[in-house]
Amino acid sequence: MNRSLPTTYSQHLTGRREALLIDAEGHSHLSLRGFWVGSFLSFFLAIGAPYANMAMRSSNMAFDFNTPGAIFLFLVLIGFLNTLFKATARDFRLAVGLAVLVVGLFFWHYTGGNAIDIYAPGFWFSLFLLISFLSNLLVVWHGGTFALNRAELVLVYVMLLVVSALCTMGMTQQLLPTITGILYFASPENKWAAMLFPLFPKRGVVVDDGSGNEGFYEGGALDTIPYGAWVEPLCWWALFLLALYMVMVSTAVILRRQWVERERLAYPLTQVGVAMVQGEQSRELFNGFLKNRALWWGVAIPLFYGSLKALNKYDPSMPNIQLIWAFPLIGSQTVQLWISFALIGFSYLISTQVAAGIWIFYLLSKFEAEFLAVSGLKSTSKFIYGVADQPLLAYQGGGALIAMVLLGLWMARGHLWDVLRKALGRGADIDDGDEIMSYRAAVGCLLCGLLGMIGWLWLMGTELWVGTLFVGVAILIFIGITRVVCEAGLAAVRSPMIAPDLIVQGIGSQWIGSGGIFNLSFAYIWSADIRIFLMAMVANGLKLIEDMDRESRRVVFWAIVLAIFIGAVGSCWMVFHLAYKYGGINLDAWRFRGGPATIYDMARRTLEPVGADWLGLSFFAGGAAVMVLLTWARQYLLWWPLHPLGFAIGANFMMNKAWFCVLIAWSIKKLVLRFGGPARYRGSQYFFMGLIMGEALCNGLWLVIDYFTGKIGNKIFILG
What does the domain layout of the chain look like in residue ranges? Predict the structure, then answer.
């Protein structure tokens, strides 16, 4: 049976999508102004997000998939900067006035006794405004406009999503402390020197400045930074991360058509960005999306609540209402009622089947956890990440997640075969012109990246079979969580089990070898606390560009590459500076102390030869089997109400904070659809997108206020 779309209908869809990014004047091209704005805002997010959570100890702007930093900056661009650029294009006098004002304020501030601090995010944003409004003056003088069109706005948003995946939890704040902490925290008590130092790879992947990296952790060492000690480790890690990101981007490209066009996943995390882009009209001064009244009612709720919470840090007499409660459920099991306005907003945009599966399977996991506690069934494994308090449920969720991925790949076998045929030059009938890179390039990058990761681990002393198995399992887990994010829109989710734990403790450390155990402990950097990562962000970005013309899509690939470079270099530069100036242990206790200690303590404990955790592996197999049955029920039983996705992540730690928000959104959506129908539901989406925007706007506005007032520790909306 021919599973492909009819040619005529496919052409109709392509034309309709491309038309959505063509404004009233026919502009749909990408220009240097889009790359300039995207590059600067990407750099600003790369340095601003770690500055906010380390130097200011404020709200996290890039820790989870909700990416409030990207939404806030995009809102500033859409609602403020682009409006000014369009206004000045109508009146040259206004362009002159704004340019003079910005130039005057810039030089007045930095020549009035305020020294230029290149590490201050405020300086960079001021410089951006200065250059942008001067450039705008020249463009308007020649009869043009510096305002971004829809396609350029999409480009900017995709770049911001990519940077969000790298600048804090996704890479930098995991990498730099881990490769330095083993020397700084080594002591006779933890026995790292005796047990782990002999296992160091011959290649220099650990930073050793000759003094135990004291300057990095204790600060006050800006004048004596040992740059030479960092060169070799960062080069080795750059090679590995390059291979990893090649795999992630190419995998997202290969799966895009299956998920976007054939399975029609919801991609809730992109819907606010899409709505803001589609509200942009070159003939209209203000963005049409921002004129919706229901949207601002939604914005007002988190903005009002968050502002009260922020003001409480300035004046304790201001009310500070907590939106977190805990109640006993059964036996020793408790449930948290955690209200996050953004999570409610995202959850309202997913299907009711997916939402029901999430909160029902979460509650069922609590009953299962109590049964395991009463029955005395215990695993020999001990985990820190994933479902750490219930290792058997971690194995069960891990098996279900990997089974979900394998089932999805099996159902996509027709598409994957087409991709392979096209890559081998035997698929002349297969059209890959609408992808950001050809299928041949994507498959080539995937294979090169996988071989690069495996080869890197082998060079570091890991057995070849161990490295191959580990990389395969890790990528399957990444695909699984990416699928969860794209389909369920969960802004706060982690894998129930991480690849290093499954390989080392599941199979048994006696089979892995001491060198393999130590090297896989380094994998915690990129595969452990994966609350945000590149594959999921790129997959969401590829959903955003589905309305672009084909030529522009290929340009987006280079924008993603540029954003990866900007995000990695910019964030490393900022974290590096802050650590040597203030001391890492004074900035972020968990990432500079708890995280490295967890990694190396786990490596030391698992060096003792232990066999396979057969009970855990049986739960792993059981979870996979149940996932197969649930998937079958969803496919063949029309009355089946629960999406199997919820079973894979039901016991996840982050579900403690997300399930109640999903339940609230599910209940409201059921009522709206029951009594108002689809039309009422479509109208109500604006209110819930306002909840998402309101959290991001509140976090961003108070970050700006705290930056100028010098307030420290003003955390407002956080997911964990």
Answer: 172-709
